[in-house]
Each structure stands twice: as structure tokens, then as C-alpha cells.
Design goal:
With 227 residues, this protein is of the alpha/beta class. It is 30% helix and 20% strand. Strand 2, helix 6 and strand 3 form a beta-alpha-beta unit. Helix 5 runs parallel beside helix 8. 37% of the residues are buried. The mean pLDDT is 92.
Length: 227
């Protein structure tokens, strides 16, 4: 039976594909006020600004390419059962070849009805415009989790963590809860590795690898595949 690896990724993985992070210095929050672009209230107040913000981000995602870390993570499927749980709203894991990806904060390349959250649509291009409606006649919005909205798939994700033989957490500040709490569900027997470019508080029982995702993940994956 294959060992199970859970890979938990944050913005640091996508940053190396050129996508701006929200929280790092120089990240997106320094150009926009959080309350103006990432809450249901902002969308009600000024939907055009919110849609424009996400349209620009969507163009960036479509132009970006998976990097060596995304590709190494996908390669783990050669030998292991792999579940990628990501805080990222891009599709770079999928494009790199990962086949099981859970997006706890939604997906920017999808739209959903602002009246019925179950009505979700894959976008054919980079734009959602004012006047793009679902069948109910309601304005479409990005299918991403905004502040004040519930993170998705938490129970399912916690279940995967609790069954893991190995956990690899990469490029996440572990400051965005409740998703950050998932790392604590790993069993005591699991091999647990945390990758970050800067020293920060490392989750208990995790081995710390300091470096960028592109620097550290491919050698670690090579080591795991060679064992």
C-alpha cells in the first residue's frame, strides 16, 4: 500500500512563479485596502472595483507558469498517494500535474453566483464583468473565500492530515486561521517537514528547512522518491 503524503502550500510557492503574495512586504495588501477588495461588504458597496482587482490577478495567474516546486510535488505521485491542500487560489498545482488538489480558499479561475454559492462556473477567459449573470439573474463574483466567509473543505482536509505518513508544509506563514491549524492534525508517527525562506515559529514536531520552495522542495522530493 502506498504511503500517503499531504502537501500543504501557501503563497510562498506561487510567489516563485511571479504571483504577488497578499501578506509579504510589497504584497497586494499594500496597494489595496483589504476592506475595499476582499469582503462581501466591499462587493456590495463597489462591485466594479472588486471585479477589476480579481480580473488583474486572474490575468497574472493565466500568464504564470508552474515552477520547480510545483513540478516536484506532482512527481511525488510516482510513488506515493498525494493530496495537495492549498491556500492558493491559482491552478499552478494542477497545471504541474498534481491530480488531487483541495483549495481551501477557493479558485480564481472560477466564478459563482452571488445569490447561490452552489452555482459555480469555470471561466473561459480572464474577466468577470458587471452584468455577467448566473441563471438566477444574479451578478457573478470570483469563487474565492473573502474575509468573513467560511474556509472550505476543512473537515476533509483535517481527515487527510490525520491519515498522513508524511506532511510537507511549504510557503505558508501559518497565520491565516482556521486553515493554519491543519498542520496540528498530523499524527505523531508522521514525518513532518516545514519549508520557509525566513525563520519563523515552526509547528511542533516539524523539521525546519530554511530556503525558498524552488531551492528546497525538489531535493527533498528526490530524497523521498529514492528511499
Amino acid at each position: 500500500m502506498k504511503q500517503k503524503i499531504v502537501v500543504f502550500t501557501g503563497a510562498g510557492v506561487s510567489a516563485e512563479s511571479g504571483l504577488k503574495t497578499f501578506r509579504d512586504m510589497g504584497g497586494l495588501w499594500h496597494e489595496y485596502r483589504l476592506e475595499d477588495v476582499a469582503s462581501p461588504q466591499a462587493f456590495q458597496r463597489d462591485p466594479a472595483t472588486v471585479l477589476r482587482f480579481y480580473n488583474e490577478r486572474r490575468k497574472g495567474v493565466l500568464a504564470a507558469r508552474p515552477n520547480a516546486a510545483h513540478e516536484a510535488i506532482a512527481r511525488l505521485e510516482e510513488r506515493f498517494e498525494v493530496v495537495v491542500i492549498t491556500q492558493n487560489i491559482d491552478d499552478l498545482h494542477e497545471r504541474a500535474g498534481s491530480t488531487r488538489v483541495i483549495h481551501v480558499h477557493g479558485e480564481i479561475l472560477k466564478a459563482r453566483s452571488s445569490a447561490d454559492p452552489s452555482r459555480v462556473y469555470t471561466l473561459k477567459g480572464p474577466l468577470i464583468e458587471i452584468g455577467d449573470l448566473c441563471e438566477l439573474g444574479s451578478q457573478l463574483r470570483p469563487d474565492v473565500v473573502w474575509f468573513g466567509e467560511n474556509v472550505r473543505h476543512l473537515d476533509e482536509s483535517a481527515g487527510h492530515f490525520s491519515e498522513a505518513d508524511k506532511v510537507l508544509a511549504i510557503g505558508t506563514s501559518l497565520t491565516v486561521f482556521p486553515a493554519a491549524g491543519l498542520v496540528d492534525y498530523a499524527p505523531p508517527t508522521a514525518e513532518r517537514v516545514f519549508v520557509s525562506p525566513e525563520l519563523q515559529e515552526v509547528p511542533r514536531f516539524y523539521r525546519f528547512l530554511q530556503g525558498t520552495a524552488v531551492e528546497t522542495v525538489p531535493p527533498l522530493v528526490q530524497e523521498w522518491l529514492a528511499r
